[in-house]
Fold these 2 entries.
Entry 1:
Amino acid sequence: MTKRKAADEVFCRSCGAAIKQASELCPNCGVRNDNYSPASSGGGRGGVHDPAQYETSVSDTWWYGVAAGTGIWVLLVLASALGGDLGAGGGILVLIGWAGLPLSVYFDSQYVRANSEWDPNVAVWVILSAIWFLNIAAGAAYLYRRHQVLGEP
Ligand SMILES: [Zn+2]
């Protein structure tokens, strides 16, 4: 006779019955379950990221901001490399790019966290996207990773 057990079950060390891993005592013989692990582990550190744990009302359109912010920075860097002067428009672009990119990353990462298996470290990405020049790489890397886990854009 072969013993069968489900994925969430273990064999009792005393009587060999298949019992739920989440049950502390064997219902068959009453011996303590050696493999007992409470089902409600609270989803602590080290666990697999579960998107269902997160709820968000953030829309999925913030990546436009990430893309636009990254694009603005590419434009600014190109303009300064070419010695061009964007004038007043350049100042506005700097403001939009500098504030808009981290803001977009902040909101979008919450959407990503609740809708994919990727759990972006929000603080790290926001900081990276606020540092001049580094933010271009950060924005591109973010969009690439986002595309991998979500299949969009
Ligand atoms: Zn037992």
Entry 2:
Amino acid sequence: MDLNALRTNHPDHWSKATAIRALTLDAVAAANSGHSGMPMGMADVATVLFEKHLKFDASAPHWPDRDRFILSAGHGSMLLYSLLHLTGYADMTLEQVKNFRQSGAITAGHPEFGHATGIETTTGPLGQGIANAVGFAMAEHILRAKFRRKLVDHHTYVIAGDGCLMEGVSQEAITIAGRHQLGKLIVFWDNNNITIDGPVTLADTTDQPQRFKSAGWAVIEIDGHNPEEIDAAITKAKSQKKPTMIACKTHIALGHAAQDTSKGHGALTDKDQMAAAKAAYGWTTGPFEVPSDVKSAWEAIGAQGQTARSEWEGRLAEMSENRQRQFNRVMAGEPAKRIGATVRAFKKEVSETLPKMATRAASEKALAVLNPVVSESVGGSADLTGSNNTKTDDLG
Ligand SMILES: Cc1ncc(C[n+]2csc(CCOP(=O)(O)OP(=O)(O)O)c2C)c(N)n1
């Protein structure tokens, strides 16, 4: 890989992506534990995504219509922590990055939902993130149908590695996303051909692009270090009606002596090798030091979404009070007010009449009472609709 060409062809991009790589090297070295290679390999994809496409506002991490970014390859957590710190999420301070993997820090080895803002879901068990992301995309689709584009119109982006795609759960998730044509779901596959034990082919020779295509996805194959290709692929993916998998050919631990080897997967802590990698990057500042112009450029990216966010807030404020209340309730995960009285009345009726029925029929009766008042509930049946009675009369 010709780092010099990457540096000279895209200098602004390069310095931003290098900040991720350098923070990752420093944090993992300080903890003497962690995974350096994946963030170093996917820094270019993440930089273009955050700079050019991701709709977010670092000062308002819970804004409901933000795009979701899910790091399914959770072992590469320093990629996410670097991005959150650089773009200016208030809780992801440099101290937290320096305390990577330490007790009490919000920077756990793998991202934990609730520890830091900007962590949309817990990941680490391979495959979990991509499967949860399909749920996120499905939720967006359902909410958009209910509340319309003015309020709900966002993408779900995922970074998944070889290990995520090996897990069985990914197959079911990919299939259902294809079946429902979740066009706002975009998965970046970190196609680096490396796992812990060696090359991917030790365990898996699946043709991943064909696998996704056969499930109804669009697939784009790119050089995951070329910012123009990354940008064009995301633009194209956003215009697709199908979910898109962007296969990103990358080099794990880019620029390090361990590049393209399974050693590059883990903690790269050798001082001389770290220094050599930073020299190859043209990175001259000390550990954990991001040049102020680079940090400012990242913070500007973190603020890019402020306009979109305030416009969205304006649209919400224009809605009727009832509509606003309904939207806020659903987003807060609060049950509908009527649910208490509805359930009490149903219990009273059942305890008075003591009907005799199979438990599956009882389940249907309960669902028939709940579904009309909890319109946001999502359920289904694994090819047993007629047997376990999940399709109540109010459903289409
Ligand atoms: C379900 C599950 N099994 C095993 C692991 C342990 N594990 C963490 S990362 C990893 C290798 C993943 O390889 P890849 O996705 O290619 O990541 P990369 O080497 O590119 O960083 C394994 C086996 C895990 N986190 N979750």
